[in-house]
Amino acid sequence: MRHLGQKPKPPHLTPFHGAAALTCLVSVAGFPGNRRSRQTTSDRPASSPPPSSSPPSSSSPSPSSSPSAGIKRGRSAALLPAMENPPTAEPRYLKRRMKRCSLDVHPTEPALLVQYEVEAAVLGELGEPMVDESKQCQKIVRLRSLNTNTDASSLAQKVVEECPLIHSSKLPQVEQLIFYLQNRKQSHENQPESRTSPRDFTPYAGVEPYEEASMGSMEEYVELLYEDVQEKVRGAALIFQLAQNPDNLEELMQHEVALGALARVLREDWKQSVDLATTIIYIFFCFSSFSQFHSLVTHFKVGALCMNIVEQELKRFELWQEELQKKKKACEEFPENQSLKKEHEKTFRKYQSLLTKQEHLLRVALCLLLNLAEDSHTELKMRNKNIVHMLVKLLEREDQELLLVVVSFLKKLSIYVENKNDMVETAVVEKLARLLPCSHQELLTAASRLLLNLSFDASLRGQMVQAGLIPKLSSLLADEAQRQRSMCVLYHISMDHTSRTVFAHAGCIPQLMKMMSDCGEEQLDMELISLCINLAASRSNAQIFCEGNGLKMLMKRAFKLKDILVMKMIRNLSQHGGATKILFLDYVGDLAAHINEGEDEGFVIECLGTLANLTIPDLDWQLVLTEFNLMPYLKDRLKPGSAEDDLILEVVILIGTVSMDDSCAAMLAESDIIPALMVLLTVQQQDDEFVCQILYVFYQMVFHKATRDIIIRDSEASDYFVDLLHDSNASIRKVCSNTLDIIAEYDEEWAKKIQTAKFCHHNSQWLEMVENRQVDDAEPYLYGDDREAFDRIGDILDRPDLFYTADGILSADGSISPEYYADFQNADLGVAGYLSSSWDQFNPSAPVLADRPVSARTFRPAKRFFHSFTPAFR
């Protein structure tokens, strides 16, 4: 499997002229052996068979001027294996023939594959065979100008005439294969994105030799690696020419001596010449582009050597910068000194030249390491050598091609927690921020993918906000190619409550509204609506969403398309007070009209939740309930099992909001809502959310006489409140205590019971100690004035002078003062008729808001209120 770019195409020859152009390129793999020891003879018998007339490979030119002689001399050595016991007779001539020729099409290119077997024999003086050898070979006939208008018959005839390996009897088969290539579809839709490939690299000027490399001259190229530096560069460049063609890699792999020499030169001489190091790494990079050659690269320890080279080059870069800063500082101290100025300019030019070569070397070294990191064990070794820290340092460079490789490498590493933690330590987000936006599209894409991977970490999301990435990512929403990834990153950032307010000043919300409007009646992208739902939970963002006709457009889309997610966004908008909530008065009727049996249950839940958020004093709830006949629906849905728990809970919350209206109290009392709530409380007593919301409904009802009398005298609600004073949930205990205080104010009989229950609850540990402790004469505080011991709890409770007073809350007789009740209404619970369903709203240290937030069931951490999506890691 190739991991870094598409398979590079071999170099093409000049096509034939004419209507049907044909390019024939022979690529024959040679046999192991010493190619330089060629067996030649000048006294070949006249009766001996002539050498083969097959044309030589264009990639392996013969050193002889005669084609036939070149084939004879070159093939003889290539077909001779290493012999342990060579024959004693003197070899005279070579006999060679080809057989078993078969044709097929190239899997990816417009070319024919000619597969054949070569048999060679070295004959002695008397014509007896001394050595026999056979080899499977392949020839590629490329058809560069083949298209749908090409005449297949003429082209097939041309192929047979130009390629001696194909017999004339195979002409129909060649024509059929060419016809197949003409009609084969080239699919580019599912191909991976273009990445760096070996052919994208070009050696430095002066390094690439003018002569054409040949596989038959590999021994000569190896000898150049033992000469001076310039000759080593030349030899490596010639080998690199061959390695650029993937068809030559398998044959190059057989030359272990050459590969070993290249690895040795790289290890010993890479500091002497950047050109030499870059060219040799290019050669091994060509091997690393294919998974089956990774073992070869690992065998010569090229990966570890590249890690050392990268580390040393980073240190060298720091020394260059220090030297340059010294020259610059000296020039600034003595601006009139022209010699210092010229020296600084000379040093700067040299620095730029060295930097260009170094970044080229780093780029190819990192590409090789990126390919080797396909193996997780190899990647772990790289991490142990601080590969992440090196890559983050390289993010400060300016070369965009180098940055592309660095960012792509970091993206691959970021999928592991350990690597991600290293990136947190090195402040990678701050360095990535400067790359957005940029003109290099591939670099921009890689950077956005890396940010998407990093955005799953909460601390890194905070760094993105501090680095000012929200406005930059918002600006990328206009770019269709970057829109989805940018929106996914913004979605992750919007998960944090503290980060949502930043979106109001980033210019993001108007773009989101325009994108929703442009969708028309089509389904919204999941990333788009999910981001809008999260942002709508912020008050400052909600004001921008509702500006102009924003709310009208959302309502129209939600009701027309029955879009549950848009309705969820509207529900989040409705929870904010002030002018935003007043805008919903025009849509109360539309919301109420969709609460019926025929609507989708999910859509009804959002409509109920939106209405429950409308705690507006001017809203006539009695008119709404009457005109849309909602009371029977609400009562039916209070029955356990009548619907999903989420729907029943929203009904309870809506009843709590309706209970604020005094005119609705009589309707609730007459419709037997209170007994239904008691039954539901009994069934759902294990669900804290249900219990808290039902208790809040009772809290609202005790403010109205019509419902207060039913709660106190005709139901067991008061007993439930007393029992729940001992509940483990602090929010439930608080709402019970507040509700019992109001009941005690209106009913003297319950006032004493409540006072006793609260005393026992507050002093439960002390009372338990009194019960279990033995009476001791040395402890007079356990006796009354008449020296009689308190042997019953009831005796203690008959002494109201023993009650604690808390800032005047309890008087000497144990009753609640009217002043406390007034303060309690105005300060402790805020506006009558409000109770938050979120547990933190009952925290005594937290201020109580004037508007009801959305139900905690909808916002509970285990069930996020925003719609999740599945992003693609790259």
Explain this structure to me?
The chain is mostly helical. It is built from 42 helices and four strands. It has a four-stranded antiparallel sheet. A hairpin with a 5-residue loop joins strand 3 and strand 4 (129-142). Helix 8 (274-288) packs parallel to helix 11 and helix 32 (663-670) runs parallel beside helix 35 (705-713). The radius of gyration is 43 Å and the shape is elongated. Residues 1-89, 187-209, 774-778, 786-797, 799-822 and 824-874 have low confidence and may be disordered.
Brief write-up:
It contains 42 helices and 4 strands.
Structural class: mainly alpha
Low-confidence stretches: 1-89, 187-209, 774-778, 786-797, 799-822, 824-874
Tally of separate helices = 42
**Integer average pLDDT:** 77
Helical content stands at 40-55%
Query: Major sheet, described briefly?
Result: 4 strands, antiparallel
N/C terminus separation = 17 Å
Count the strands?
A: 4
